[in-house]
Amino acid sequence: MKELNLGKDKINKLILAFSIPCVISMLINSVYNIVDQIFIGKGVGTLGNAATNVIFPLIIIFNATAGLIGNGAAANLSLRLGEGKKKEASKSIGQAITLTLLISVLLAILSYIFLPQLVYLFGCTKNVYKYAVDYGRIIILGAPFMITYSSLSSIIRADGSPKYSMIMLVIGAILNIILDPIFIFIFNLGVKGGAIATVIGQIVSFIIAITYIKKIKSVKLEKEDFKINKDVKKILALGLSSFITQSIVLILFVFMNNVMTRYGKLSKFGSDIPLSVYGVISKINSLFISTVLGTSIGVQPIVGFNYGAGNELRVKETLRKVLTINFIVGIFFNVLFVLFPKQIAGIFISKTDPNYKLFLEFAVLMCHSFLLVCSLNALEMTTSITIQSLGKVKKSTLVTFIRQIILLIPISLLLASVFKKGIYGILYAGLISDILCFIITIFIFRSEYCKLGKEKEQISAKEPTSDYQDIKNIESSQRPFTKVITISREYGSGGRYVAKLLAERLNIPCYDAELIRLTAEESGFAKDFVAKNDQTRNNYYLTDNQIFETETKVIKKLAKNPCIIVGRCADYILKNQKNAVKIFLYSDEKSKEKRVTKYYKIPAEKVQKQITKINKERAKHYKFYTNRNWQSIDNYDIMLNVDKYGVEQTAKNIEELLREESNQ
Hints:
Blueprint: H1 11-43, H2 46-82, H3 86-113, H4 115-121, H5 126-141, H6 143-158, H7 162-186, H8 190-212, H9 232-264, H10 272-298, H11 300-308, H12 312-339, H13 341-346, H14 356-367, H15 377-389, H16 393-418, H17 422-451, E1 484-489, H18 495-506, E2 510-511, H19 514-523, H20 527-533, H21 541-558, E3 563-566, H22 570-573, E4 580-586, H23 589-600, H24 604-626, E5 638-641, H25 647-663
Parallel strand pairs: 1-3, 1-4, 2-3, 4-5
Helix pairs in contact: 1-2, 1-7, 1-8, 1-10, 2-3, 2-5, 2-6, 2-9, 2-10, 3-5, 3-6, 4-5, 5-8, 6-7, 6-8, 7-8, 9-10, 9-16, 10-12, 10-14, 10-15, 11-12, 11-15, 12-15, 15-16, 15-17, 16-17, 18-25, 19-20, 19-21, 23-24
């Protein structure tokens, strides 16, 4: 970040710098599974491949858990370091490590106990059962190592050591590749050998990851940092998005495993071959998915930063280029699936296998139906990730759900009931879902793309804005006022007008909307963007945090001189400043409704909803950055009901109280 300028460097250079490490990391995880399938397929056959496919949902669960904790801790680490809260940052890492170890061990124990039931839930057949249990029991023993190093890899990257994280993953993958043929063919251990090789690779990666804990650069860990407390909720909240994404993948994979076995037995292929082939082809397809997702995730900082800074033309350029790259990747894999399905599937099975011909036949059928237009998925994956960078989290989630849940599962069940041999219906459901999802996503992507560069965000209509920097000096016989006043207020309470009047009476500046301009100038973001996202949480994880960090710097600079600062968590930011007076102003509901209707021109039927919405946003924003309740009396020196005396008299009463205190 220090060497690259997100707002000025060439987009091509930035895409390469940010996306390549991300793509490599994601591909390594795919390679792990593919290598196992290749050697197990050659050494054991169709049933062995089917067994690894049955156990794969467990691996998804382990990855989802690692993402929940690791990604959440990494995000929280960056956030706390940005705020200068190193102690909280160190606790974030310590708690994440402890939580990862505890949950991973618990997951391993539960998975081991209930494995016989789980394999059938995941689509296992009687023929595959023994292989699946043998493979699964060993893989489960490696779960704590896998979850821990995966979780720590996110923290290591956030600590500024992405190369270390990548090397850690690469060493484990290479070791797995070397050991697989040794255990499967030389020691003749079959699926158990593949699992042992995988676990050994995971243990080595785990050791490398654990070794890094003492080398962490951003904070210094102490024993007390490893104790879990209520702050762990923040870690889990920040990692929830990753967990949900993996959960969707899990649901789809379990569904497909079950329909492959259920409807496969009605065809000449039987239950085991479709289950095995689906696992094999899915692993190859994961190379395509990993590349597209890695590229898209890599450009998130580029898109988010430039969108926040108002450089919408650079955002459009980035979107065009990343979409072009991903479609080229998609077309490449699509050509492979269409032209070389036998060659691809042949890598995973021996020619001496009795199911060899049927295995290849089903692989061709799957590639020419289920994956016939898989390149179209590049648009769905790119759109889902990139529009999240624009803060459109709901739309992003919807796009993810469209193909995986909303289209594929219902269409599969519908076509399976229509076709006499339901397995064909399942395969063509993939083709239809891809086409429909592509058409729907075109409209979503085009809608967001066309907004860029044409529409400027209007300054939020939450409250009328006005700059109070140049306040008229009022002669006063009183001694100069020396305090800094922070005023938090409910929406519609009249608090901002009290602040303006009080500033005039005390002859000091009042900073309210002026903070938007100052924050925009300090951060480089567009003023309209800062205004829209000020005092709210809109899930612009990168830019939200930068806005708050910049506002904090601005507020601390302003607080070096007597002034009034309205909102923006100023009471918390200045909590240790001795001359700061913290005030909270509120009002009864009817008075707020009248005031909002009169001054903000909100229709009477909508006013209560608007008041509730904005006060919730303020409370959420305050809680996120302070871990305190916005309306708690413990946060303030003075809490007043503006309706008791009215706006003018409230300002006068506060002035008299503060001047009396100053004169003592």
